[in-house]
DNA processing protein DprA
Amino acid sequence: MNSQSANTRHVLTPSVSSLSSPSSSWQAFSSLSSTSTPASPTTPPSGTIFAVRTPSEEILWAQLGYIANGPSSGMSALISTHGARETWDRLIHLSQQESEQDSCEHLASLVISALHKSVSEDTSRPSSASRPSTVSRSSAQLRANVVATAHTWYRRLLELLSFPADVLAMRLSANKRLHILYPAHPCWPAEKLERLLLPSCSSVMPICLWIEGDASLLIEPHISGIVGSRQMSDYGKRCTQEVTRACYNAGSVVITGGAFGVDAQANATALSMNQPSIAMMAGGLANPTPSANKPLFSEIVSTGGALVSEVPPYSVPFSSRFLERNRIIAALSDVLIVAQARYRSGALNTARWAEEMYRPVLAIPGNIDEPSNAGCNQLLRSQKATIVTDISDLSDFLSPTLSLNLSEPNPDAPTSEHAASRTDKHAPEPLSLEEEILHLTARQGKTVDELVSKLQPRYPAREVSQSMGLLEAQGHLIRLPTGKFVHAQHP
């Protein structure tokens, strides 16, 4: 996992710095074919514009994803406000203005209007995909950032329009190697990705996803994230192998970040069990990195697994993309296991995302004299994770069901003085935290804050939120569009 800025969660705002340079992107994109090659590799081509006004759904979303080139609150707001196809039509129309500056000024106004509209609506809805913090800055600063991004979008749009439809489709799918997932696709993991829109998280959903391999793995009933440091000790290797085996023995599929160390070991262990796994990449899938792991990536795909990315096929995985990638690993994971991590490991960034999405976070402790264990020990010391001291500790988080005593109160139960004076050995067992949560949500929905308020000080907020995440993952709790949670048997 990437270690840069591990202790600060990456902020996703409409800034030109979050996009790759047009020239480097263009060189990679145009190198796929000898046809339609620009005279200069550093500028978009001039001449014929193939304005594809009615692309297929798959190509439509891939084009919008290519223009945004990663997580984008601005593009998400446009799609939320106007829909994907109208957004594309508006971009085509704006590209035909008299000058680039005019086009970008108009586009910036359109984006800012959409951002304000999406924030004014109910942010818990799946369509409201922009960050509230995006529009809280000064109007001048916001407009300057959006105009800069609009210029990048404009140039990337011209790149797309310079290709005939059939050539463009080949390039957006890396010569048909990749599937392109979008919100209406049957393998789009909508319920899990909507965790990114929780008020506690306030992130953005990916515009689309590029997949090599079995896309249906993303909608598996239970996915376990296994993350950790690139520098892995023998102890970390053994722990990673054991937790990976436990996940598959419980029927869960493993997702990692595809990096060296813990990530690669988890994927390799899945291969040794002849099981499919998922690797979520920070860069494009045409040239997955790290390059030394390419044999591993090929095996993952050939044995029924999947490589996933939210950026176009030839995008470069610069540093911020590793942190952006982490949020999707956390969203897709029903439980996140930190097998071994240094103090500044990128795995801790993934754990923070998981915590904000109310996903259970587990960590394996280690020798305090070994720097490779400092991250996990810190998570446990700060009560940000549940300790794993034995593989059996994973069972509750990997099991599809919980054995809970959730019977309704018996109206015929004795209420006399004799009943009140029963001895302790006949008294009912006190409810567990999970049982209390389900009883509290049996009649009407409750928000996380409401449940925390009712259950404190007996249970800390972290424990309540993690138990809620576990119950939701196992199907006992349902999150309503209002953001409230309700017992699945009493929706």
About this structure: The CA atoms of residues 183 and 190 lie 7 Å apart.
